[in-house]
Design goal:
2% helix, 445 residues, mainly beta, 7-stranded antiparallel beta sheet, 5-stranded antiparallel beta sheet
Length: 445
């Protein structure tokens, strides 16, 4: 499950896949919202000053604007206003002479819904999308943006699990948006496989009329993917895990759930057909379906695949939701391949009482032995420590713990020889009445 943006230093070019939209744009009338707006956060993971260049490309591949900037060591820079024309729709490629990471927040123009995703350090000729929707229950639809970050054109084929196929040719540096509700789908919930002559980057967006979530496409699957955060019956927040079998053989999959802050350990088993997606977690924690879980019990912890009978590559999207249709809170992240994990993770955005926003971190030991984990935060003496058994998660809520108005970043390190950890960060807003819930994957270093 290669997700290079999380696992590799970016010193040449880091591609952010989606259209950065300023204000109203007719280009996105096919989405659930009349207009979209993006922000970009760049994070220097090195101990030296980073010199960066942001190159903004229109959807046809022509250059809109370049921006040159510097970022001090172990610091972030957020671009709330992008240097493009009103109504711009396109993509950006970020180049740096130091290891950097980047996040993008995609929001509707009213700023009442949004999703966060992590920039890709390289594309792939095959990309999997485990969760897509067309006129699904509750009025959900999806769309995804595909970027060609290469200096040559590429031919792209999208094969959906319900039998629909789409072909396009993308010019150099061009991007294209695919809107599922405009396509003749025979299913409401399905997955996709994207193939391309040249490496491409894909990010998907899930929307109803009031909420939005985002996730990156997967270059490959993993036999035993891990999910650092699973919520159920937690102050109205619940989790669905959509697992896609990217292989060619049906397989029986068991997900083991381990509590970190609430609940009891349990397992869930379902068969995932080749090329298809099956939803885990939601039914297990609601009614106990296909599982040993106690329906209705509060659960805060993690999940990982412990049985994969045919050893097929799996990719999963973990969606967290609150409210009924339309949702009041919605966020999504992608599963991790434990083989790609490292002993340290970096989290570019940490908040405590920042205009009402706060974060929580969830650090999972995906190694084979016990390890101590220590987390430090920039510009504060606040720390988080713990000892984790294999597949155990350290959960910490930063609200009211660091300082009023805190905006910073965090680094967690595991100390055991050969230790491997992964992490995700949730961001919420106190008292929010609209969708201010976002989540992102930590960057392994």
């Amino acid at each position: 499950m290669k997700r290079k943006q999380r696992f590799a230093f970016v010193t040449v070019a880091l591609a952010l896949a989606f259209a950065f939209v300023i204000g109203y744009s007719h280009t996105h009338a096919q989405g659930q919202f009349p207009g979209y707006k993006s922000t970009i956060q760049t994070y220097n993971m090195s101990q030296s000053t980073a010199n960066i260049i942001l190159a903004f490309y229109r959807q046809d591949g022509s250059l809109e604007k370049t921006l040159t900037d510097i970022i001090e060591r172990d610091r972030s820079k957020i671009y709330f206003t992008l240097p493009v024309q009103e109504g711009f729709s396109g993509s950006v490629v970020i180049s740096s002479d130091q290891p950097v990471a980047a996040l993008s927040n995609m929001m509707n123009s009213a700023l009442t819904a949004g999703g966060t995703y992590v920039g890709e350090s390289q594309g792939s000729t095959t990309v999997y999308l485990p969760l897509l929707m067309a006129n699904s229950d509750g009025g959900f639809n999806s769309w995804f943006a595909l970027q060609n970050p290469n200096p040559s054109s590429t031919n792209v084929t999208v094969n959906y699990s319900d039998g629909i196929t789409t072909n396009i040719t993308l010019a150099a540096y061009a991007s294209h948006n695919f809107y599922q509700k405009q396509e003749p789908h025979t299913s409401n919930l399905f997955s996709a496989k994207v193939t391309s002559d040249e490496p491409v980057v894909v990010v998907a967006f899930l929307e109803d009329t009031a909420s939005m979530a985002a996730y990156n496409g997967f270059a490959s699957g993993a036999v035993n993917p891990a999910m650092p955060l699973v919520n159920a019956n937690n102050n109205g927040i619940n989790t669905d895990i959509q697992i896609q079998n990217t292989g060619d053989t049906d397989t029986s999959v068991t997900v083991s759930y381990m509590p970190s802050a609430a609940g009891s350990a349990c397992t869930e088993t379902q068969t995932v057909a080749a090329g298809q997606t099956v939803t885990f977690a939601g039914g297990a924690f609601e009614s106990g379906a296909n599982s040993t879980c106690s329906g209705g019990e509060k659960f805060i912890g993690s999940g990982h695949v412990t049985t994969n009978s045919a050893s097929q590559p799996l990719a999963a999207v973990v969606s967290q939701r609150a409210g009924s249709s339309p949702l009041t809170q919605f966020a999504a992240y992608g599963s991790f391949d434990p083989d790609d994990a490292t002993s340290a993770v970096r989290m570019p955005t940490i908040n405590d009482r920042n205009a009402g926003f706060f974060t929580s971190i969830n650090v999972m030991n995906v190694g084979s032995s016990e390890t101590a984990v220590a987390c430090s935060f920039t510009d504060t003496t606040y720390t988080v420590t713990g000892t984790l058994q294999p597949n155990e998660t350290l959960t910490d809520l930063q609200a009211n713990k660091i300082q009023d108005g805190y905006v910073g970043s965090a680094t967690c390190r595991a100390t055991a020889d050969g230790a491997k950890i992964i992490a995700v960060v949730n961001q919420l807003k106190t008292g929010a009445t609209d969708d201010q819930f976002q989540v992102y994957e930590a960057i392994n270093q």
